TrEMBL record:
Catalyzes the oxidation of 5,10-methylenetetrahydrofolate to 5,10-methenyltetrahydrofolate and then the hydrolysis of 5,10-methenyltetrahydrofolate to 10-formyltetrahydrofolate. Homodimer. Its EC number is 1.5.1.5, 3.5.4.9. Residues 140-284 form the Tetrahydrofolate dehydrogenase/cyclohydrolase NAD(P)-binding domain. Gene3D superfamilies: Leucine Dehydrogenase, chain A, domain 1, NAD(P)-binding Rossmann-like Domain. Pfam families: THF_DHG_CYH, THF_DHG_CYH_C. Belongs to the tetrahydrofolate dehydrogenase/cyclohydrolase family. This is Bifunctional protein FolD. It catalyses: (6R)-5,10-methenyltetrahydrofolate + H2O = (6R)-10-formyltetrahydrofolate + H(+); (6R)-5,10-methylene-5,6,7,8-tetrahydrofolate + NADP(+) = (6R)-5,10-methenyltetrahydrofolate + NADPH.
Length: 296
């Protein structure tokens, strides 16, 4: 079997197209322009690239982008003051604090200072609780992107056996909640799971978000399963820096029914879903109907 490649780059372009169409209508019919504020603390090179990309794509879909760059030694109080200002700025519908934060900052405290209605990352404890209880919430971008690709590929996910490898608050746990919401039978596995290959072998859907380069091997995958690789790991191979996922792509693609590549799979969907969430937050703030197909 040769797996179908789920092209996240192309899918993300389609999502951005839907967002741009909706934004144009919002402007024309209501005179409203959604605004996204992105806060970067420090000079982490990967974070700088992601933040630049977020700003560029925000403008490309017709939204306003507000970038705030703070030095790595910024006191936490200053960041909290900025978040308070953005919470009270009616031109800002979405707020995102790029992670990771410098070590002297308390990530939970900072995230929970964001107005939950503007929390386009879906990391605020209120949104976590709403998602966990099946209520309307802001949904974390990476899991939302995975869900969109799975729904597009399968249609209904009802009754499928899904294994999520990884239990992080930003990917593993919300991913499991979303799959449960679509009536999958969900197992959350992790680095300490006993007989992990056997657990993965039972799954119709495998979401790998464990942060270990190429850990999931082809012989762990059930024939025809769908494999979503969330990992973004930079490793050195043959003297070159390369990007690999949490799945050993070649061996998995030989047995899977469908698979996301790295790069070009889940990554681009993360930013597309951030734009979708900002649009959703703007519609909710203005009491307008939410865009269809862009939320969970
Ligand atoms: N506040 C947040 N911080 C972080 C998040 C997040 O969702 N919210 N996620 C990651 C980083 N991230 C977005 O912020 C992100 C990661 C990767 C990609 C992406 O498109 N990756 C490309 C490869 C890019 C490369 O060469 O490095 C791909 O997979 O094709 C987009 C966004 C951590 N922080």
């Amino acid at each position: 079997m040769v797996a179908e490649i789920i092209d996240g780059k192309a899918f993300a372009a389609t999502v951005r197209g839907h967002v741009a169409d909706h934004v144009a209508r919002l402007k024309e019919e209501h005179g409203i322009t959604p605004g996204l504020a992105v806060v970067l603390v420090g000079e982490d090179p990967a974070s700088q690239v992601y933040v630049r990309s977020k700003g560029k794509q925000t403008v490309e879909v017709g939204m306003n982008s507000y970038e705030h760059k703070l030095s790595a030694d910024t006191p936490q109080k200053d960041l909290l003051d900025l978040i308070d200002k953005l919470n009270n700025d009616s031109a800002v519908h979405g707020i995102l604090v790029q992670l990771p934060l410098p070590r002297h900052m308390n990530e939970d405290l900072v995230i929970n200072a964001i107005d939950p209605a503007k929390d386009v990352d879906g990391f605020h404890i209120s949104n976590v609780g709403l998602l966990g209880t099946g209520q309307k919430s802001m949904v974390p971008c990476t899991p939302l992107g995975c869900l969109m690709m799975l729904r597009d590929h399968h249609g209904s996910l009802s009754g499928k056996d899904a294994v999520v490898i990884g239990r992080s608050n930003i990917v593993g746990k919300p991913m499991a909640q979303l799959l449960l919401g679509d009536s999958c039978t969900v197992t959350i596995a992790h680095s300490r799971t006993k007989d992990l290959p056997d657990v993965v072998r039972r799954a119709d859907i495998v979401v790998a978000a464990v942060g270990r380069p190429e850990m999931v091997q082809g012989d762990w995958i059930k024939e025809g399963a769908t494999v979503i690789d969330v990992g973004i790991n930079r490793i050195e191979r043959d003297g070159k820096n390369v990007l690999v996922g949490d799945v050993h792509y070649e061996s998995a693609a030989a047995v899977a029914g469908a698979i996301t590549p790295v790069p070009g799979g889940v990554g681009p969907m993360t930013i597309a879903c951030l734009l979708a969430n900002t649009l959703t937050a703007c519609c909710r703030a203005n009491g307008l109907p939410e865009p269809e197909g862009l939320t969970a």
